Structure formats: C-alpha cells, structure tokens
Amino acid sequence: ADYQLDGHPDYMRKEIAEQPEAMRRALMGRLDERFSTARLGGLRLEPRDLRSIRRVKFIGCGSAYYAGQIGANLVEELARIPADAEPASEFRYRNPVVDPDTLYVAVSQSGETADTLAAVQELARKGGRVIGAVNAVGSAIARECGSGVFLHAGPEVSVASTKAVTNMSTCFAMLALLLGRVRDLSVADGRRIVAGLVALPSRIEEVIAQDEHIADAARRFSAARHMFFVGRVRGWPVAREGAQKLKEISYVHAEAYQAGELKHGPIALIDGDMPSVVIVPDDELLAKNIGTIEQIKARGGPVIAVTNADLPAGLADIELRVPRTEPELDPILFGIPLQLLAYHLATVLGRDIDKPRNLAKSVTVE
Ligand code: G6P
Questions:
Q1: What is the pTM of this model?
Q2: Where does the signal sequence lie (predicted)?
C-alpha cells in the first residue's frame, strides 16, 4: 500500500525508472575495492567451499531463467567454471543428476514460483548445494535455500519484471567475480569489473534518458505482427529476454534466435514485414554481428540495432544506443532499451501494461 505510482502512468514505467537506485541497493556494501572482489556474506561459503565448486547451474522460470543464462555466461567468463541455466519446470521433472560439486542457484523475484520451489526441494532431498537469488525476503524459496544473495530490488508490482531481472544479472556478476577471484581472475580484471559495476547505475540513467528516441522506434514499427530478436553469446539471453518482454505486454509475436542459427531456417521468414532487433555489442564478435545485419538487410528485413559500437552509417534502420561498460557487463545494460521498446510498443497498441492477459506476477500453482 505504501508503494504507489508517484505520478508514473503505471508500475512498469515506475519500476524501469527505479533501476539505477535499485541497482545501487544491490551493490551496496558488496564490492570490495581493496581486493577487487565481491563480498556476498549471505552465501555462507568460505573461500575453500568456493574453490571446490566444479560447475554452476542456474534454475528459474521465465525472465528469471533468462537472467540465469546471463549469470551462467558471466560465471564461465570470469571464473572459467562450466555453467548453464535450465528452466526449473524441466529440471524438476527430468530426474536430474544431482552432483555434489555443482553449485545450484535458484533464481526468483517472488520466491514463490511453484516450479522453482519444487526444484529446490528435489535438490535438497538429493543433497545438492543450492543457494537462492531471490528478491522477496522471507519467501518460500529463500527459506528453503537458507543461504544466497538477496536482490534488493524493492517491491515489484508490474507482471513484466524489470528492476528484479536487472538486479539478478547484477548479483550474478558479483557472484562470478567472487568465484573468479578465488581462482584465476587477476587483480586487474577484478578491479575492472568492480569499477564497471560501480558505474553501471549511472549508465542505466543514460539509457533511460533516450526514452523519446526509443518511443519513436516503437511507433515506427507498431504495425509489425512478428519480430525477431537476434543475438549471439553474450547477446543471446538478452535477445531472449527482449522477446519475452515484447510478447508479455504487447502480444506481438516475438521470437529470439542465436545470430548464427538464423541462416539455418528462420531467415526464410525475413521480409519487409519482419523487423529484427539485433544485439550488437562492441566486442570481439562485432564483425560477425555486422555480417548478420547485412544478411537480414539483403532480404529486405528492417533492422533495429541495439549497440554501443560505431556501426557503418546506414547499416541499421534504427540504432538504440547503449553506453559503454566492461564487455562482460554489456548484457546487464543492453536489457534496458529492450524493456523500453516493449513498453512503448505496448503503449502504442493500447495494452494494459501492468496486467497483461493470461499472465500472473507469480505462478504458485502448476
Ligand atoms: C511468471 C511471471 C514472469 C516471471 C516468472 C518467474 O511467469 O509472469 O514474469 O519471470 O513467473 O517468477 P519469479 O517470481 O520466480 O521470478
């Protein structure tokens, strides 16, 4: 009741705007600038325990699963520990092999999602080491896990999750940093990631300041019935979450593909009525992603490039600019313009932003 709109048209809008302060809360007291690492006391894991982890697996549902995929990439990149993400609904029903050397991370905004809770209970029965990455303190998943990292996003009302998913990947960057710094990650790289994280909230403010430009892009493509979201490696879970947001609140059919897979089927669907949102970070895969845009353009497909690179003039029909951060942290920042794109498309189409049809904020039954 004391969490109100404060002049915002809806909760999604308010929660998008709150992301810089929500992220500052998640980072507060958790970055160790002296030793270039993270301090996550809630994990209850000593350096010895951290070093014994041979694999990391993130489990969650919906946006929490996609955030887990960003987390898995971060853990592999910064700690060089094999990591992946899996939907909790699949994990619980396939009689998973529970490995004592794996750290399982249960990811949930509400802490009440039935599939995620059941996965945690199954892990507990089989002796798996499971920690929570949960927003709601005192929730069922937080209690069942007993240890973990709270997201500190504050209350989230909009069904489409924004500040909670941003804090999920932010917390996973800190987890990956910590796992990396008790292994091979250098002081210099640790320092680079710490500085990148400290600067991230103000980078988000810079994205939000481009709201009008993103709204223009949404108006320009408001007639599209279908859209592709395309990314590779770091950009792939970003594309999946972007497509998810668009589907949830605008009901426009959105499909995410790995850039390299486009040519193996989906490219047959590209024409002037099928816009593609392409994630183009300025990293070692830039040339590959430019090639992907060229392939789409050659088939007449309109392209919205989400980028922090200097793309050849006229390559994309529209550019949504993202400020620079450390390349490993790009996926956290690249999610923000996609939230705004989905938001504005849904607004143009007159949708009920906070209460999309057929969806619930948290799915506590099967
Ligand atoms: C529901 C919501 C999604 C959310 C998912 C997981 O399906 O509509 O937006 O990502 O549950 O919720 P959780 O609370 O576990 O993060």
A1: 0.97
A2: none
